[in-house]
């Protein structure tokens, strides 16, 4: 629709005049004059028609231009990307802990079963048989008299071939290879080398999981190597090959624990990190509890025990592990933001939710001109835990605390064969104690801080070990007394100490996960595990010394455990704290928090 301007109105008036001349004319005019007037009128008609058309075209253009400007002012601005961190996406869109995360945590935590089984299998495979007997055709009076004593050490003076183990010569490596008397020290070598392998493997797999393979593929590699080394162990021909393969098995299985806890906790909201990290220890306890059941049916041949245990991680790797997702946090810090976003979309979809179309993940460090992925990967690769002062001090503190807890935790478990109870019953009871320890730890993690819970658990474990000194003295004073009252009391006190040590052991993993950022988290957990394994490798020596002086072992256990609880007070509290992605990001944020606290004070 066109608007008429005053100029256009005047033009229309002129049109009317021209038309009146053309079509009406005057009668008094002569023929010649009429022709001239009409000719001039035609000329003006053409002129005014062109002028009117030009005015109307200009008016139309102005109207269209005005509409475009109005549309530009009314139209909404173009959509911008919604940039959020992984933490924010999980909390606001995916859900802190939905069905997708539950299934993920369940599948990941199953691997803890194999970690437990391969760690504690030596309780049965390396156990010293409790009874022996004279061979029927032996008429040696020395054999008969020694047999009546019932003491295993009494066989040292007997001639080979005059006696045998009641359970058979293949019931354990000690029975098969004669690791008694002057060869008894050889029986401790496999366990020590196993924990030494675990110590070295923790550093290797921790770095591998952070730097190249990621959490998922590192767990897979560790499970496959654990399966292979366990099977090869069953084929050992002597104590030296057996010890070497136990070292390899300890090295292989160390990647399971350190990666599983990180892989499980990095996909849930902050309030669920504590409980989720404890779920893995339920499966560790389940693996521990399954050992007596498997070992009892293979009690006449220790090689069959290793063969059965080797099949479980292989089956898990083939049947269940393909459904596990990689950590989106690790993918992001490695510059693979699209893959990280795809993982989060999968979790959200299984939870019945959707992510915004314009969502993109915030980079944990600012990219440079070389591109987002290149700059991010380069920045994260250059960061080193040991070259960062605050992180190095924190790591050393965690390792000192972990050494004492690992010493007590594994020492009590390995000492179970020295109790005057059935071995299968004692191990089963110890395994059952893990369950309430995990339950208590899970509940208290949601109610108290990590530092407080760890220190109190370490204190309780230490005090329980010191109280056991009283019962140890009572046992030595009444050595000839067959009453088991003192033994049951000592077992109860040791059980309380073991449960407390187990809680501290579990909480330390959670604590370490939250103390360090994504790009060094696996390495930090591996360093903590190294400290635990170092304590575990020394614990058997103290257990052996405790056979001569029970008070000494309990005293050292108690002092180290209490010392670990004291050291933990130099660590910051991490309850409800976010999981950071880089050392620089965490350092800046923690400095800002300290500055704000000082300002508010």
TrEMBL record:
Entries under SUPFAM superfamilies matching the protein: MFS general substrate transporter
PROSITE patterns associated with the record: MFS
Topology in the lipid bilayer: Multi-pass membrane protein
TM annotation in the entry: 185-206, 218-245, 281-299, 391-411, 423-445, 452-472, 492-511, 531-548, 554-571
Positions of the Major facilitator superfamily (MFS) profile domain: 104-576
Gene Ontology MF: a single term: transmembrane transporter activity
Keyword Transmembrane helix annotated: yes
Places the protein is found: Membrane
Keywords recorded for this protein, A-Z: Membrane, Transmembrane, Transmembrane helix
One Gene Ontology cellular component annotation held by this UniProt entry: membrane
UniProt KW Membrane keyword: yes
Protein name (database record): Major facilitator superfamily (MFS) profile domain-containing protein
Organism the protein comes from: Populus alba x Populus x berolinensis
């Amino acid at each position: 629709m066109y608007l008429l301007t005053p100029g256009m109105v005047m033009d229309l008036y002129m049109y009317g005049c021209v038309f009146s001349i053309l079509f009406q004319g005057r009668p008094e005019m002569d023929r010649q004059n009429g022709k001239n007037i009409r000719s001039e009128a035609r000329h003006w008609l053409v002129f005014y028609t062109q002028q009117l058309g030009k005015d109307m075209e200009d008016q139309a253009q102005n109207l269209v231009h005005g509409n475009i400007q109005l549309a530009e002012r009314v139209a909404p601005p173009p959509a911008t990307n919604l940039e959020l961190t992984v933490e924010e996406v999980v909390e606001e869109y995916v859900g802190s802990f939905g069905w997708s995360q539950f299934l993920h945590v369940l599948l990941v935590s199953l691997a803890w079963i194999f970690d437990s089984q391969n760690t504690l299998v030596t309780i049965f495979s390396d156990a010293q048989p409790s009874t022996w007997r004279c061979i029927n055709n032996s008429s040696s009076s020395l054999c008969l008299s020694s047999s009546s004593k019932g003491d295993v050490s009494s066989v040292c003076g007997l001639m080979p071939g005059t006696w045998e183990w009641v359970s058979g010569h293949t019931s354990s490596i000690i029975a098969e290879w004669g690791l008694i008397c002057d060869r008894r020290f050889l029986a401790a070598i496999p366990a020590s080398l196993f924990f030494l392998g675990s110590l070295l493997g923790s550093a290797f797999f921790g770095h591998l999981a952070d730097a190249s393979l990621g959490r998922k593929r590192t767990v897979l590699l560790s499970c496959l190597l654990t399966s292979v080394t366990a099977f090869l162990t069953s084929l050992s021909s002597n104590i030296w090959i057996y010890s070497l393969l136990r070292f390899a098995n300890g090295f292989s299985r160390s990647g399971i624990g350190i990666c599983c806890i990180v892989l499980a906790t990095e996909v849930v909201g902050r309030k669920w990190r504590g409980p989720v990290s404890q779920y893995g220890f339920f499966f560790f306890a389940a693996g521990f509890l399954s050992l007596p059941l498997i070992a009892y049916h293979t009690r006449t041949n220790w090689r069959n025990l290793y063969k059965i245990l080797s099949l479980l991680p292989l089956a898990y790797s083939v049947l269940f592990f393909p459904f596990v997702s990689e950590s989106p946090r690790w993918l992001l810090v490695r510059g693979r933001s699209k893959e990280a976003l795809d993982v989060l979309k999968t979790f959200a979809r299984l939870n019945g939710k959707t992510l915004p179309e314009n969502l993109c993940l915030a980079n944990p460090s600012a990219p440079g001109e070389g591109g987002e992925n290149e700059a991010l990967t380069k920045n994260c690769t250059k960061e080193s835990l040991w070259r960062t002062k605050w992180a190095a001090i924190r790591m050393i503190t965690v390792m000192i605390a972990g050494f004492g807890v690992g010493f007590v935790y594994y020492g009590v478990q390995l000492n179970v064969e020295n109790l005057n109870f059935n071995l299968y019953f004692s191990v089963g009871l110890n395994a059952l104690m893990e369950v309430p320890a995990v339950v208590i730890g899970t509940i208290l993690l949601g109610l108290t801080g990590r530092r407080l819970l760890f220190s109190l658990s370490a204190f309780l474990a230490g005090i329980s070990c010191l109280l056991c000194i009283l019962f140890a003295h009572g046992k030595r004073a009444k050595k000839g007394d067959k009453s088991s009252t003192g033994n049951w009391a000592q077992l109860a006190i040791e059980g309380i100490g073991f449960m407390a040590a187990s809680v501290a052991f579990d909480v330390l993993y959670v604590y370490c996960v939250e103390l360090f950022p994504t790009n060094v988290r696996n390495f930090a957990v591996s360093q903590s595990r190294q400290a635990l394994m170092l304590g575990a490798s020394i614990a058997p020596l103290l257990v052996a010394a405790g056979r001569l002086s029970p008070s000494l072992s309990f005293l050292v256990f108690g002092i180290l455990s209490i010392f670990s609880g004291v050291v933990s007070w130099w660590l910051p509290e991490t309850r409800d704290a976010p999981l950071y992605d880089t050392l620089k990001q965490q350092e800046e944020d923690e400095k800002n928090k300290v500055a704000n606290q000082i300002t508010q004070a």
